[in-house]
Amino acid sequence: MARPEEKAQAMLNKWVKMKEEGDPTSKLSRTARRNEKRPFLASHCEHLADAERFRRQILGEIADGVKKIQNAGLGEHAVRDLNDTINKLIREKWHWNRRIKELGGSDFNKEERKATLRAAAEGGTGPEGGEDPQLAAGASLKGSGGYRYFGAARELPGVKELFARQAAKIAKRRRGDVYKYIAPDYYGLRDEEDGVLPVLEARMAEENRERLRECREEYAAARKRRKREREEAGGDQSGGWEDDDEGGSADEGLLLDELKDGIPANAAVPSQEEVARALLRKKKEALLTRFG
């Protein structure tokens, strides 16, 4: 008689167990999920609490790996394998962070990027640099696609030389270092102290004066030649006034030549009135000489 009762009790136990497993709030269901193996793909997880639990599990595995890889006595092959495992877990954590955001949770990828930038601005990374402080122990090479080297992996043959080469490229002078070595010579404040520049300036000034004098002589000779050609061709009666103007212009040029060559650089420059009086005197002398 007991056998049907035992069967009924067994069936009831199975039904109760199935009901508890189907209820996500039951203790049996929570225990089963806690013992559940982490899915290979983060997209297979449908519950936010499970995704956050798997992320914490990955963070714990990364922390354990970083602690173990600090031991350089593990051997080269063991260190390389352990470093590869840590990088694999870091990539897996990124996918779980994205899945948590898709399920309506926090954006851990954005928070970790902000923490990294804040730590870099402060000159270092510490426990306050985000939820993943163990990444501070890793260093990446430029162009490595985000692959990081932790602990003893940075001292492996071939890796150490790459880090030394990268450090030599990064060690550049800052703007403050450049300004530190700028002297007044950079702004040309002491160019005349060596005595070379005044000599060159004087030589160039003399060449310019000589070139200007030649140009004026050529211009005066051309004017005289045109005047002689007009006289030979029998010019009109108004040529006298033109001659006076030309003579005045020539006298003005000669006077400017005399003023330019005769006044030293340290003497006072004549005013406009003095120049006008001198020109008027020259014109009067020219007219008296011509008609007197």
Q: How would you characterize this protein structure?
A:
A hairpin with a 7-residue loop joins β1 and β2 (148-150). The longest helix has 37 residues, at 196-232. α3 runs antiparallel to α4, α8 packs antiparallel against α9 (239-262) and α9 (239-262) packs across α10 (272-291). The chain contains ten helices and two strands. It is rod-shaped and about 165 Å long. It has helices at 2-22, 27-34, 48-69, 76-102, 108-121, 159-170, 175-180, 196-232, 239-262, 272-291, and strands at 138-140, 148-150. With 292 residues, it is mainly alpha-helical. It has a two-stranded antiparallel sheet. The model is unreliable at 125-134 and 236-246 (pLDDT under 50).
Brief overview:
Helices cover 65% and strands 2% of the residues. By secondary structure, it is mostly helical. The chain has a two-stranded antiparallel sheet.
Question: Helix content range of the residues, please?
Answer: 55-70%
Strand content: under 5%
Poorly predicted sequence stretches spanning 5 or more consecutive residues: 125-134, 236-246
Q: How many helices?
A: 10
Structural class: mainly alpha
Radius of gyration: 48 Å
**In which order are the strands of the major sheet placed?**
1-2
Distance between the termini: 169 Å
What is the string of SSEs from the N terminus onward? HHHHHEEHHHHH
Largest sheet: 2 strands, antiparallel
Rough shape? rod-shaped
Whole-number mean pLDDT: 75
Number of strands: 2
